[in-house]
Amino acid sequence: MLLDMLGRLDPYLVSAVLLAVLALDGSLLIGTVLPGDAAILVAGTTLTGVAEIAVAAVAGVIGCYLGATGGWLIGRRYGSRVRHSRAGRRIGEHRWNRAERLATGVSGGPALATASFLPVVNSLTPILAGTFGMPYIRFIRWTLAGSVTWVTAYLVLGSVAGGFARQNQHLVVPVAGCLAVLAAALVVIVRRARAGRAAGVSEPGRSPAPETVSPPLR
Questions:
Q1: By the 8 A CB rule, do 14 and 23 touch?
Q2: What values do phi and psi take at 49, rounded to 5?
Q3: pTM of the model
Q4: Per-residue pLDDT tens for 38-54?
Q5: Which of 84, 155, 181, 199 has its CA 20 to 30 A from that of 45?
Q6: Residue 188 pLDDT > 70
Q7: Cα–Cα dist 119/184, whole Å
């Protein structure tokens, strides 16, 4: 079984690969193709003890530091050219706008910390922070605060899920099916909620229907 194979991997090798993936996640936009969440969860399934999780967490945070620093420097050097490049346009303007709100919003640092938990957006935030001139010390302090929580929580979750799956292999398929159904339902609910909010916002600005004038009585 795949989980058994993953469980036999060297935890130091897993940690090194995780470091590299997360370093590329924030600097070269690899996270727009391979979300860091998935990489951390898969790495977690290979870990079986507190010591292994701790080593992987340290490696993951170092990777986040390198990726965030690289992304900030790219944004500082090239500005909005990355955003308007061919690769940037493929990412989607709505994702850039969401990351921009986190990088420049009034909530500032705490928003940067929570950005780690937003797939794709967390890869764009470092570049935008550099583009808009956010001080590096302030940026990296809040980014690392979020990264420590993000990496540790997902590694623990992956480790627990991997251990459960290895001990209860007969339940893997039913549980995966239920999770897939729940995820699909959640996506539908979120999309409908967004559509409802968009309709509510556009309602006040909608021009009133022209009044019907009755012909004069003769």
A1: no
A2: -155, 165
A3: 0.71
A4: 899 989 988 988 999 99
A5: 181
A6: yes
A7: 17
Residue linked to tokens 């004069």: 216
Residue of 195, 45, 27, 207 lying closest to 124 (CA atoms): 27
- pLDDT higher than 70, residue 175: no
Q: In angstroms, rounded to a whole number, what is the distance separating the alpha carbons of residues 110 and 105?
A: 10
* Paired tokens of 196: 């409802």
The whole-angstrom separation of Cα 52 and Cα 44 is: 9
- What residue type is 208 in one-letter code? P
Residue with token string 């935890």: 11
Is the confidence at residue 11, as pLDDT, over 50?
yes
The number of beta carbons lying within 10 Å of the beta carbon of residue 38 is 14
- CB-based contact 47:155 (threshold 8 Å): yes
* b (16+ CB within 10 A) / e for 108-130: eeebbbbbbebebbbbbbbbbbb
CA angle, 37 as apex, 83 and 73 as ends, to 5°?
35
Residues 89-103 as b/e (b if ≥16 CB within 10 A, e otherwise) read eebeeebbebbbbbb
Query: Domain map of the chain by residue range?
Result: 2-167, 170-201
The alpha carbon of residue 177 and the mean position of all alpha carbons in its chain are separated, in whole angstroms, by: 23
